[in-house]
Amino acid sequence: MMKYNHVVVCISIIIMALVVITPQARATVSCGTVASSLAPCLNYLEGGATGTVPLGCCTGIKSLNNAAQSTPDRQTVCQCLKTAAKAMPGVNVGLASTVPSKCGVHIPYKLDPSTDCSSVH
After folding, report:
1. Neighbour tally for 40: CB within 10 Å
2. pLDDT tens, 42-78?
């Protein structure tokens, strides 16, 4: 039994090392993450947007921006945003594109339904 525990520990250490060393090629941000991060923005974007952007919305945008540091993550976020914009016709897309800058966040691509997400880097 003691020998088995040593093998398990050694394999675990090797797997952890590979995870740390191996570059990530797949996105780690999901559309669920995008939706939950941006949920606090919906009332603002659907309700005529009077006043300032809600704090929860800015917090979600900053969190999502921090999570999407790789090209695959940014492409996934872009595609999720495009899909969400099509599914929610009540959202003012023009207003949505201004929210990141109002929250002090730079997005490296244009938030627009016509954006080619495969070109996002």
Report:
1. 17
2. 999 987 667 789 999 999 999 999 999 999 999 999 9
Domain that holds residue 68: 28-119
Instruction: Please tell me the pTM assigned to this model.
Output: 0.73
Distances (CA, A) of 70 to 6, 79, 91: 36, 14, 27
With CA atoms as reference, report the closest residue to 88 among 51, 48, 45, 55: 45
Listed residue (74, 72, 111, 78) closest to 92, CA to CA: 111
Q: What CATH number does the domain containing 82 carry?
A: 1.10.110.10
Radius of gyration of the chain (CA): 19
Measured CA distances, 52 to 40, 41, 109 (Å): 13, 11, 23
